[in-house]
Amino acid sequence: MVSAEIMQESKRANPGKATILALGKAFPHQLVMQEFLVDGYFRNTNCDDPELKRKLTRLCKTTTVKTRYVVMSDEILENYPELALEGVPTITQRLDICNKAVTQMAIEASQDCIKKWGRPVSDITHLVYVSSSEARLPGGDIYLAKGIGLKPETNRVMLYFAGCSGGVAGLRVAKDIAENNPGSRVLLATSETTIIGFKPPNVNRPYDLVGVALFGDGAGAMMIGADAIPWVERPLFELHTAIQHFLPDTEKIIDGRLTEEGISFTLARELPQIIEDNIGDFCNKLMKVAGNGERDYNNMFWAVHPGGPAILNRLEKKLDLSPDKLNASRRALEDYGNASSNTIVYVMEYMMEENLKVKKEGEADTEWGLILAFGPGVTFEGILTRNLSV
């Protein structure tokens, strides 16, 4: 499947190639059980429309989400009751809440990652910060850097409003930085909250209910670097080849607008079909860039951002994947919902658990795989990756 030259490479990371050295995550305190979400949401928004309630109940079942973490709480709604009202300008209040929340979660996820990495925070040379849940100057990168004690000379990059592809886009950027700056250590942090788009139900905005049933909050972090220090750092995945591709004339398929009432998202019904129609060519292109033309995708592992069950199902069908290949993505969706840019971190953690399970059961290792995500544009992000933990 992968070219003979690549396959002969040992599971030791190749010199100069970026690797993931540690993962971290963090969540707000509110855990929402999906079976209780409908009643709570309609109570909080003072809505009693039975048809909308039935529709949200159906959506909550089809999303396959079981639990999620959210920043929104009774206390916030008590302090900001206008968030549950229709047509009230609330962008100032929302950003006040979101800016603080994403910073705190990003700090906690980064600290978790740095602890697992095992080196002092002063050894971090670069920061890549990703969020679609805040807007301010200076940006969240400054507040994160201050919160974890980064050196003032740390080089920073921000990726704003990249949506669901933001985590993998950030990983691609971190890979480029690590490979072009010998000895560098790049902290990638993502942080998201749905408060920026929280709204009461409205028959004229049916997609709002999809968001209520699907999206969650949280933060993720990864440490990226090449040439790991033996006995100090433990590389988990090698980032072999990364590419990005946008589909012309699909700008309106994933559409987000920042308004006086917060951010409004719409996802076109065609999105899963568009991904299905283009995923084969994208994966083929990624494999060819890496120097191989054969394709046997069931001999690879798959870390796919779970935008929703329809996207996972279409991808599985199109590439003729066995049902277990998307286990990590489906588990992340069940446990955390679609947490936008963060979710790929949760998928990678579950991927490591899956690898450990395979190893204990004495099954053949899956060394090569693809990290994939899809976002506004429509943009495809992909990284051919080697599993160094098998």
Automatic annotation (TrEMBL):
GO terms for molecular function: acyltransferase activity, transferring groups other than amino-acyl groups; protein homodimerization activity. Keywords: Acyltransferase, Transferase. Residues 11-227 form the Chalcone/stilbene synthase N-terminal domain. The keyword Acyltransferase applies. GO terms for biological process: polyketide biosynthetic process. PANTHER family: HYDROXYMETHYLGLUTARYL-COA SYNTHASE, TYPE III POLYKETIDE SYNTHASE B. It holds the Pfam family Chal_sti_synt_N. It comes from Daucus carota subsp. sativus. InterPro entries: Chalcone/stilbene_synt_C, Chalcone/stilbene_synt_N, Polyketide_synthase_type-III, Thiolase-like. Belongs to the thiolase-like superfamily. Chalcone/stilbene synthases family. Residues 238-388 form the Chalcone/stilbene synthase C-terminal domain. This is Chalcone synthase. The active site is at C164.
